UniProtKB/TrEMBL annotation:
Protein name: Oxoglutarate/iron-dependent dioxygenase
Listed InterPro entries: DIOX_N, IPNS-like_FE2OG_OXY, IPNS-like_sf, Oxoglu/Fe-dep_dioxygenase_dom, Plant_2OG-oxidoreductases
Pfam families on file: 2OG-FeII_Oxy, DIOX_N
Leader sequence residues: none
Keyword Metal-binding: yes
UniProt keywords, alphabetically: Dioxygenase, Iron, Metal-binding, Oxidoreductase
Keyword Metal-binding applies: yes
Amino acid sequence: MATAKVTSVKALADLPGLSSIPTTYSIQSTPNIVNEEAVSDATESIPTIDFSLLTSTNPEERSKAIQELGKACEDWGFFVVTNHGMGESTMKGMIEACRAFFELTEEEKKEFEGKTVVDPIRFGTSTAPGDKVLFWRDYLKVLLHPNFNSPNKPPTFREFALEYGKGARYVAREIVRGICDSLGLEEDYIDKVFNLENGVQRMVANFYPPCPQPELAMGLPPHSDHALLTLLIQNGIGGLQVEHQGKWININPIPNTFLANIGDFIQILSNGKYKSILHRAVVNNRDTRISIAIPHGPAIDAVVSPASKLIDPVSNPPIYRAVKYKEYLELNQSNTLDGKSCLEHIRIR
């Protein structure tokens, strides 16, 4: 089977009569990402944060929600966000706009291939160059804030991206305020120190087409997210797995909710009290899965370090050095996805 001209996983999956995957997509030679058996369904175990209570003007309701948020960050690093106020039509519309983008012709999508990892719009496939294995995934990365960008195709994309990005940014900032509160910091600590008004918000749309040999392929390998907080929505097809207490847990999509997870910068800020969690994407042989992740970060020139209030030279010395967001982003985007290797680069030995 000749695949030299195939430029995306979608184009490969669409080949007539495809019954096996090229060896370049097989994970058998990479034991660190091989599919171990996962718990079948643990969605109900994941903490749920009611956003309406987190933002409540009732001090008792908010205090209880802050406690629950802190426990979710410490025990899981992942949680479901309900009653967030974003319209279901906006969330579904964003997913369908992304689907329409991936269904453009290869030539049309090629117009949006970026030249560097920080380009405001970047379409691509698999993952970083130099990897030993290719992943069963196409992606579109779009910078939404502080400068709004959008591909000009499909025509619906810009409108939904503008509305969805604004809504997600509000939800993320309020959750981050709650995280600060739960750590005993001023609730606007991150807002001020990391200049969230100009914080980087980048949409990452992932497209995982059906795979004829899903047991041999991987959508995305185990990794943590680099930013402060990521909000994720999906098209109703499962495939996300989270590592919890040494096991991989299947996370089934829940309609009209966000799945939130804390990133490396919260681990740095909290000096390791709250940890970013490894997660990965597996594929199937029946359905196309679409996920949209939006990592929310500080301003690009902000310096991230453990909060001075949370460290002590004797009892709790800093375990991470200060790092500029731009430096960490380039490190994250330019290297192979490999667990939490980026955090190890800035760990104080």
